[in-house]
Amino acid sequence: MRAAELVEGDKLAKYSFGVVEGEGELPHGYTAGLFTADGTYGSGKPRITLYGEKKKLVPYLNIKSGSGKEDSLGRLNYGLFEDIPPKFFVPTEYSVKSRLEWLAGLIDGDGTGNGAIGVQIGSIHPEFLNEVRILLSTLGVHSKVTFGNKGSSRQFRPDQNFYECSDTYRLIISGVEVQKLVKLGIETHRVELEPYEHQRAAMQFIKVVSVEDRGRVDDTYCLNEPKRHRVVFEGIETGNCSEIQQLNTPSVLNDDLTYDTVGADISCNLGSLNVKKMLDLNRDEFVDTVQVAVRALTAVSTMTNIDSVPSVREGNNLSRAIGLGQMNLHGALAHHGLRYGSEEALKLWDNYMALVTWAAMCESAELAREIGETPYFDGSEYATGEWWDRVPKAHLERAESLEILPGLEAPDADDWNDLHLKVSQYGMANAYLQTIPPTGSISYINNSTSSIHPIVNKVETRKEGKVGRVYYPAPHMRSDNLHLYEDAYEIGPERVIDTYAVAQNWIDQSSSLTLFLRTRQPPAT
Predict the structure, then answer these.
(1) CATH architecture of residue range(s) 232-506
(2) Helix (H, G, I), strand (E, B) or coil at 460
């Protein structure tokens, strides 16, 4: 079942987690966990204050400075080494040893309980507790986050003022689950986690209390098929990206799984252009950039020999298929003062894709002159002439102007005629040239909006494994164009589909498209 299909009241089947090994050692593991619980920053440097029975934890800490003398309130104050991880960093991907050390420090700082009844960890940050819950799952441990107390004004001592207290939350680890940590070797020094044999594992069902659409589309499965490492979901065999649509032929296998006939499967040779940066170029620079990209991706194809999968090797050698994509469209449009999906934006986008397509095909024809045409060229719409009437001719008829931006124009009729002659003479080296991939991670690296779809939030919150939370403002967003950064829910599916339809007219594969729909539609205005 998909997460989106869950409803309030559903119960999830009981199951056991495995232990994820992880890698890398966390600096100051135990100290980092205690710093998360009781640490703070003074003049930008990490410090920790110990009080009550926590003062006995000093021998287990990596301390940089401190006199060891109590202050007027009976507390011990110490400076910590500056390479300690950030306060709310959760080391989910580190080694089992590092995770256990960090968790021991956190439990000694903010935890209560014991090895028999279990442990509770309190915090005013439910997102943080949820990240700890995920860390525990990597250690094979079930836990849950629940609401603790409602925030209110409180007076802790008669001689103190009232303080405004936030809502509190609890992470609960049952006694049975704590024993899994004990067996893994966790060493706490304040909260005693003694070994204990429970008579039964009274693990509760996980009950769905609410379903909230956050705009994410993440179908996640944890499984493995040991023979081919491929699985069929809803009649579709996994292995290909949704934006890759290419001709392939089946292989015939013998009983011992050797090949009787080697078919032709698909290799994804993808790379994407940054639309905003492309629009900063003049026409010669634009064309040269596209052609360098086509040549580079083709080199990836021709230099790759996947001998472990003969059918992929065969398909790659025959087609030299590449997937030149696009990203940062929303950022580029907003930078130039255009509303995503508007008539003006669609005209610019249409002309832009025309120039990309023309430049890419020019380079593929030149490559065909150098290394020969793909066997798939003969009989294609490029060879029969159908494509030239259906795509570039139709574009010239509908385009009111070929200008993309001042100094940058789409190809005219003479450009297309010259290309048609070259393709007729040499063919094309690549069976496939363009696609629209999702460009998730590489967009962040390139300070780009993802693919050609709109932003989901003006400021995204991302969880990075060894960094923690990262706040990512939409690229190129300024006070003067803030109104152009409508999110995908505000824009609605129609303008997204219009934008993708323009691109689909030019590309020779398919598009990775996500539609964002409101659970409840706003009232009509």
Answers:
(1) Alpha-Beta Barrel (3.20)
(2) strand
